[in-house]
## 1
Amino acid sequence: MKRTLLLPALALLALPLAAQEPAKRSALWEANCSVCHGDDGHGQTEEGLKKRARNLADAKWQETVSDGRLESSIKRGHDRMPAFGRKLNDEQVKALVAEIRSLVKKGS
């Protein structure tokens, strides 16, 4: 009887851990953005700190920028961020903009 109660209890303990795992990013993000912005978009990687990468997960900042501005920054670069316009096509750039938008947690 104790085993029957123990297994569901252990499963419940694991739920908060699974909920806290960061969302997996796309291969496109991994190849082009993670080195500076990290998987969470906060820019706290070694390279991101060197280049002062923007915290893309900042909800207040995201409210101030349009998708067009994000697309332009990805294509042409911005401050210390390199340009990706020759490397990525329009569809890929739009996919990265959508991924940036997904970094903001709902309700924050």
## 2
Amino acid sequence: MLPCWCSEEEDSLPQISKLSVLALADEPILQIGLRSVLSGAPGIEISGIHASVAQAAGSARENPPDAILYSLALDPELAQIHVMRRIAPDAALILWARDFSTELAHQALDLGIQGFLSTTAGPEAVIECLQLSVNGEIWMERSLASTMLNSRPIALSRRQGQLLGLLVQGLKNREIASEMGISEGTVKAYLTTLFEKVGARDRFELALYGLKTLRNTRSAAAGRDLRMRNQVRPRARAGVRTVA
């Protein structure tokens, strides 16, 4: 059973008072739907919706946005993502598509994408994705996160593995800091790195990854022990003495 964590006040991130959103979409129904959702959201404004990367780039250069909804349909290979990153380096880049392959999602994370928003998402999910991505968090639907966590191994340092083990036990930041002999600020820095490295959206998903990693580690250790026993048995039959 997974432990339950309470949200920690010190982990909260500052909120932006007025969030400016620039979007890429060439389908009229998506444009209408997005305007309808965001026009009724307090603290959010649409700086523009454009049907090409070139048009969006020009708009971003003139009025730098806080978030960019980047249509995967207009750039399926992410070949022009660097253009938007160069023009609006401080904006949160959010991929916008019906669905995402795990390989593309991993590639997108390496390129600095902070959100993965489905075009079928409801209004609440759209607003949550924008707000959290702008605040520096990585946002994706839980199904995509689970698939990514199981898709390929991720190498962790010894300290990252130690922190992950303590997180799985349900310890809070200050308790983890005490156990590891480091400051709470260092714990937060480790967690930020782990969120990005693993592709987890929150502590719950990071703990799921930790549990899976621990299970795999134990299984690997058990497999090594079994192979060692199997290797010893033939020698014992061949006359190797064992001492009780």
## 3
Amino acid sequence: MKYIVKGQQPPALIPIHKDKSKTYKDISDNDKVSPKITVKTDTLEALLRDQGYICCYCMQRVTIDGLNSASPLYPTIEHYIAQSTQESKDNNLDTDYKNMLATCHGNDKKDPDNKHCDSSRGATPFKFLNPLNKSCERVLGYAEDGTIICLDKSNLEAIKDDIKTLNLNFQKLKDAREAIIKGIKIAKRIERNRLKAKFNKEEFKQKELDKCQMINGKFKPFVQVWIYELNKI
């Protein structure tokens, strides 16, 4: 999970949020910002820019380029505090940009028996994890086989429950993370063999960490896996 720094909300969303009679259902594909852009797609695009085009939970690449909303790969606008909660209803959070995130399709249309992220979570409240809080980077680690592990023993059970709620240890996600971890080890070995006595692990580490910064507005998919593994060098 990658900490998300929220940017400015789309201007077209502001009057909808200010109008207390409006709900998330009013952010529809019928409200045009321009002939080809709706309030909903404009909001989703803004969320993706904030997140560097990765899912707020599993960190897979997410994009709307070349897709329509009927596509099984189309991302979703997620609400950290679920719309169905009284807290959301009392505070108009369903139209609050600060409560919105962009999540991957979570297999909801491709493999509905193995959902993850928002598709798995539904309206289940989180016990600890929050991509809008920097602690999400500190409390999660990644085992050699790609399994997400909890590094915060004081909140162990709450974090384990949240991981289960999001089904973040779904095998395909684990496989993707494991491949990254193996790839880093292979790259390090190749570089060491190439440079021999001149190999400097700190220089290698920093060079690879530099690639984990947002480049052309995008993070690497599973960027925190890269950062976690590189910081172990």
